[in-house]
Every structure is written in structure tokens, then in C-alpha cells.
């Protein structure tokens, strides 16, 4: 029996316009009646995620910033802060990568040092609260992760600049333009495991959905692991099952099918 469902948002639960399908709230209500816990797990900032679920946010769990921060029953938990010196090293490297912009993701706010319109437009899709500063290396705040917005493509451009850091850091390709760098062991999978332990729910009682490489670890926490039809090929190899494209409401349709929900 499924007791826990966790899903990524962009490219997974949300459509191409970043919106929920009209059926979602009905399905969520049905899941709640079955005592199934629902988790939104995203690379997005927490303040941004809850806008999508504002009417039901008190009845669900959240994993934000690629697993570095979570909120369960209103209780906030920081999985890990990245070392300040390590963050500064990343900043110095990233400043020299073409078409790449840096974001320091902190608990209550994100920090940037560039006002480029193209970057700001992309940033505001995923970050609700941010401040522009003169120098990111001088920010006095605890850092969840360093995020890079790479308009040349994160997988083939900025990703390669951090090969020497892979033993020490969690480096996740979160989307076409996005690369996240956090402490080793801070990812969506670790966050889902903490929720499972909290609720005494097993992998076989867990269902997860994703589309990008930052969902790989989450796939490992559930027997019922689904890669979207539009998912990265490497994720499809990790997941046990497939769901239709996010543009075809794949997550909601699969939940309705498996959980026998008729709305």
C-alpha cells in the first residue's frame, strides 16, 4: 500500500507553464482521505514552492533547494549548510564561466550580484525572495547551496568546471540552465529518507516522480519510482517505471491509476 508520494515540480508535476493540472486538488483531497502523505520536492526556493500550493500547504510536506531544506507539519529542518570557504571557491570559479550567473540560496533569502534582465527573468521563476549585493563572497548568511544559472547549458558547460569537487560536494544538474552545488549528502533522496523514518514508511510504501538528474537519489528511496516520458535518459535508466510527459499530466494520471482515484 502506498503511504507516501513525493514528486519533483518543474518538468514533472507542473505543466509547461509551471502550473498544476485542474485535477490535482481533487486528487490531493482523495489522497488525504486515504492518509497518504504528499511531498513536493524541488530545487526551487521554499517561498516560491508554497505559492503553487497555498491552499493546501498546511496539509503537505516540502523539500526545497534540492534537499538542503525541508518543512514537515510546519517544522523547518535544515539538512545541511555549505562551508563558507567552499562556497567562496565556487563563486570565484563561476565568475569566470561564460553566460553563467551565481545565486547563493539561503534559508530565508537568496543573494545575487548581477542585474542582467535575462537572468532576473529566469531567476524569478524559481526564487521568490532575493537580494542584490555588491559581492557574494561578503554575504553574511548561512548558505544552503550555490546555484548557477548557465545559459550555455549546465550539463555541458558549467558542470565540467567542478570535476575536482565531486568527492566533497553534491553537484546536481537540475535543469537545462541550472546547476546546484551543496554539501555531500544533501539531496532529495536524503530528505525523503528522513521523512520515511519520521513516519515509519518503507521504500515499498513510497512512490516518487522526477525528470532530471537531481531526482536520481530520490528514485533510490522508493520501489515505485517513476521517470517522466520527458525525463533525462540517465534518470529513465534509474527509475523502475515510466509516467506520461508532464505536458500530458503524467503524475496525476499515474496517481489516479495506481491509487484507484476517480475524479
From TrEMBL:
Source organism per UniProt: Romboutsia maritimum
One of the Pfam families matching this protein, by short name: Hydrolase_3
Name this polypeptide is given: HAD family phosphatase
GO MF term list: magnesium ion binding; phosphatase activity
Record InterPro entries: Cof, HAD-like_sf, HAD-SF_hydro_IIB, HAD_sf
PANTHER family to which the protein is assigned, alphabetical: HAD SUPERFAMILY HYDROLASE-LIKE, TYPE 3, PHOSPHOSERINE PHOSPHATASE
Gene3D superfamilies on file: 3.30.1240.10, HAD superfamily/HAD-like (3.40.50.1000)
A GO cellular-component term linked to this record: cytosol
NCBIfam families reported for this sequence: Cof-subfamily, HAD-SF-IIB
Amino acid at each position: 500500500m502506498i503511504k507516501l508520494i513525493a514528486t519533483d515540480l518543474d518538468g514533472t508535476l507542473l505543466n509547461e507553464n509551471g502550473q498544476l493540472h485542474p485535477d490535482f486538488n481533487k486528487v490531493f483531497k482523495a489522497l488525504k482521505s486515504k492518509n497518504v502523505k504528499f511531498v513536493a520536492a524541488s530545487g526551487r526556493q521554499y517561498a516560491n514552492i508554497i505559492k503553487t500550493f497555498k491552499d493546501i500547504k498546511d496539509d503537505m510536506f516540502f523539500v526545497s533547494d534540492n534537499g538542503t531544506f525541508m518543512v514537515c507539519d510546519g517544522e523547518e529542518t535544515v539538512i545541511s549548510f555549505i562551508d563558507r570557504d567552499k562556497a567562496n571557491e565556487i563563486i570565484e570559479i563561476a565568475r569566470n564561466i561564460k553566460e553563467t550567473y551565481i545565486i547563493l540560496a539561503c534559508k530565508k533569502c537568496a543573494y545575487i550580484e548581477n542585474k542582467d534582465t535575462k537572468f532576473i527573468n529566469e531567476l524569478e521563476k524559481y526564487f521568490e525572495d532575493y537580494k542584490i549585493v555588491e559581492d557574494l563572497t561578503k554575504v553574511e548568511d548561512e548558505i544552503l547551496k550555490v546555484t548557477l544559472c548557465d545559459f550555455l547549458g549546465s550539463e555541458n558547460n558549467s558542470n565540467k568546471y567542478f570535476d575536482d569537487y565531486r568527492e566533497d560536494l553534491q553537484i546536481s544538474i537540475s535543469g537545462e540552465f541550472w546547476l546546484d552545488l551543496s554539501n555531500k549528502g544533501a539531496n532529495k533522496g536524503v530528505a525523503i529518507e528522513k521523512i520515511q523514518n519520521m513516519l515509519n514508511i518503507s521504500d515499498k510504501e513510497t512512490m516518487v516522480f522526477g525528470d532530471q538528474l537531481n531526482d536520481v537519489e530520490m528514485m533510490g528511496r522508493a520501489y515505485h519510482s517513476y521517470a517522466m516520458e520527458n525525463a533525462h535518459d540517465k534518470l529513465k535508466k534509474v527509475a523502475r517505471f515510466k509516467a506520461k510527459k508532464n505536458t500530458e499530466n503524467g503524475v496525476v494520471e499515474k496517481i489516479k491509476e495506481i491509487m484507484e482515484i476517480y475524479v
